[in-house]
Each structure stands twice: as C-alpha cells, then as structure tokens.
Amino acid sequence: MREAAPFTSLRGHLLVSLPSLQQDYFSRSVTLLVEHNRDGAFGLVVSNPLEADLAVLLADHDIDCPDDITLLESGPVEQDRLFFLHSSDRTFENSVAVNEAVQISTSLDLLDAIARGEGPADLVAGLGYAGWSGGQLESEIQADVWLVTPYIHEVVFRTPFEKMPEAAARAIGIDLNLISPVPGHD
Question: Could you tell me which residues come within 8 angstroms of residue 104 by beta carbon, excluding any fewer than 6 positions away?
C-alpha cells in the first residue's frame, strides 16, 4: 500500500497569477487562500475592484452601509454571495480567522459595528469566490500558473489594485516582468 504524499496547507497565503495565465479570469490577479486542504481550496480574489457601490447593492435590505467600503469581484463562483475580509484587530461573532492578521465573515452585523464606529481598521467586501477541487491547485502550481507568497497585509489592503501582483511577488524577491509567459525551456 502506497503512503499518502505529504501535504502542506497554503491557507492564509497569497496566490499571484504568473504571466503564463493570460486571457483568463485570473490573469494579473492576487487571491487570498481562505482554506486549503486535501479536499481542495477556497479563496477570494483581492485584486479585482468592481465599479459597483456596496451601499447601493444593500439598499433594498434596509442595511445602513458606509459609502467607503471597497467592493471586489472576489471570484467567478457564486457571484451573488457576499464576503467580508477584515483585519483581526476586531473579532466578530461570525468571523473566522484565515491567519493571525485577517479574518473572513459573511455576517452583515459587521456593518452595524462599522456604523457604531467599532469596525475593523481594514475591510473589503467581495462578491463570489474561487474554488479548486482536491489536487487541482497543486497541479496548477506545478504547471507554473501560480506563485505562492506569504500573506502580506499591505498588499491586500493598501496597495493599488493594478500593482498588487508585482508587489506580492517583489516581497519574496521575484520580478514578474522577468518571467516568460510560456513555461518551459527552449
């Protein structure tokens, strides 16, 4: 009987799309891995802002929502599902830690806390998610589709969206401009 290959979870890490991933939904993207285990992975794209306004989106739900919450297209799956990523300086009942610096929540109670001035220092909202079946993400990493970096709070919450991939890669000493869009050797 073969022993199972060792597994290392990438939960809490960032996935930076490599130049080989062109003309694809994830081209020039950065994704935060919220969960990663042998059964698959779940992440939120943090680099694709929407021109929609979260307050307008929630207007029909009688929810007091601040105007300044960035709304992202956080993945191609279930784009009608709303997620919040927020810094861990505040913990809410329905928030789940992704790592020590960031949490995810689907609770609109977070907006009430913000209205009371008790919200987290950093917050973005996203519609949708990215998902991978068991082994799929690992295969994509081996095929040079993704660069894995540690979580970098400044990249997720403070870097201009168009500069996120380069900033995340640069944090581990990689210049994306020097990577060929065609994997392999000549």
Answer: 34, 44, 83, 84, 85, 95, 96, 98
